[in-house]
Amino acid sequence: MSDRVPMTKAGEAALRDELQKLKSEDRPRVIAAIADAREHGDLKENAEYHAAREQQSFIEGRIQEIEGKLSAAQVIDVASMENTGKVIFGTTVQLLNMDTDEQVTYQIVGEDEADIKAGKISISSPIARALVGKSEGDVVAIRVPSGTVEYEIEEVEYV
């Protein structure tokens, strides 16, 4: 199936945790708030009721979105793979900027898991696309908005 979405084990666990919280805590709380607001009478001018219904709609939409993502997920656990030094989905890559000698570390993750502040970049990002398939010791030229930056792949971790 080509519509499979790559996801790390941690990404899958985070989505499952969010789904569990939405179903077991948030949904019942909103249902109770709607019932409480209904008791106040006229629903047309009841702001509490409309706010609770809007929140319920958001929660139900998010539940459907997460269930869809999980059903299409292809969970990849790189920790269980042999480290060949090759950059693949889920690996953590330590790079050295050839111009500035600055080191950066990125983990290549799925679209929903990407968080640049945490060092997690999406598999579809230009940096990840340039790195995938390369090995430790390779020099990679990556086009960025300000031009082209060369990085040397110093280490590839399968964690």
TrEMBL record:
Signal peptide: none annotated. Residues 5-75 form the Transcription elongation factor GreA/GreB N-terminal domain. Residues 84-158 form the Transcription elongation factor GreA/GreB C-terminal domain. The gene is greA. Keywords: DNA-binding, Elongation factor, Protein biosynthesis, Transcription, Transcription regulation. This is Transcription elongation factor GreA. One of its GO terms (molecular function) is translation elongation factor activity. Necessary for efficient RNA polymerase transcription elongation past template-encoded arresting sites. The arresting sites in DNA have the property of trapping a certain fraction of elongating RNA polymerases that pass through, resulting in locked ternary complexes. Cleavage of the nascent transcript by cleavage factors such as GreA or GreB allows the resumption of elongation from the new 3'terminus. GreA releases sequences of 2 to 3 nucleotides. It comes from Marinobacter suaedae. The lineage of its organism: Bacteria, Pseudomonadati, Pseudomonadota, Gammaproteobacteria, Pseudomonadales. Belongs to the GreA/GreB family. Pfam families: GreA_GreB (PF01272), GreA_GreB_N (PF03449). The keyword DNA-binding applies.
